[in-house]
Amino acid sequence: MPEAYIVDALRSPTGKRKGSLSGIHAIDLGAHVLRTLVERNSIPADEYDDVIFGCVDTIGSQAGDIARTSWLAAGLPLNVPGTTVDRQCGSSQQAVHFAAQAVMSGTQDVVAVGGVQTMTQIPISSAMLAGQPLGFADPFCGSEGWRARFADQPVNQFYAAQRIASHWQISRAEMEAFALESHQRALQAIAAGHFEREIVPLNGLKQDETPRETTLEKMASLEPVDPQFPDITAAVSSQTCDASSAMLVVSEAALKRYNLTPRARIHHLSVRGDCPIWHLTAPIEATRQALKKTGLRMAEIDRVEINEAFASVVMAWQKELDYDPARTNVLGGAIALGHPLGATGTKLMTTLLHELERSGGRYGLQTMCEGGGQANVTIIERL
Q: Mind telling me which SUPFAM superfamilies this protein's record contains (predicted)?
């Protein structure tokens, strides 16, 4: 079977909510990484086969097929099409999967993939919430089929995060210690310059502005997001932010045609579902399925990027997979570095690739929980 290769990977800094990137139109935020991707690679812009972007809540500035509009706003050729993917938090990771599948099928050779999200302008799930409190909307309440299957069980990320913490016996104090380490790792990575190769500065911002100098005492003083979920606070949750990211996925024929040097090979890609009421547990079974399909053991995986939607998600995954925390999110995760929804998939994969190169590792695994109880898994092999 033909192989799919990663030639380049980059991202904007993550701008905190109402921060340095908050005033940039979502299309221009996406255009920034696409323009840079094309400029620093030797492929003529009009020879790209497609642009596949992840984006969640495609309304307002994010509407109108933002993959296509970002490409055009970057001043790039009219003949290149674009399509926008919504697999919730895993949208741009799924974009990589679609691009790799196109390359592996032999139908395309050069695909720009990525994602964009401006959470300052378009708050999470704006299309569904319609003024309801964050995270408590129930878009399924009018569906007879849904209610027949799941009754009145809540589809709620905070409920799920608390349920996971309780089921896996993870205390609030343990989650706060995990969150503190996420910030410390991110701040140390910034100080050491580990993100400099992957970040393309924008609007005067050269580094992520989301990591915080905090303490366990400050975290312990925070009120829960809701009294029903006593262990879930802002401190143990991912940060809303504004960002974009992009990667270049090509075929072997394209490597030869354009004299490109591959940085990684797509070793495995899959997606798996789990119970939508548990909502955030799918990375566990999705990872197990990926290991079964590839024959790899977790001990052979050098680095893991698993999205820190909530501390309990990652901690439960680590318990079930028995994987070394020292090799998981080694530069910090979304608690410190933000979770820009549609951009997070390729943002994490960009960091994973650069970290494999920095550390000399061979295999990197990426997974993340997604709305509806889903999870993508991608395993890349550094070349």
A: Thiolase-like
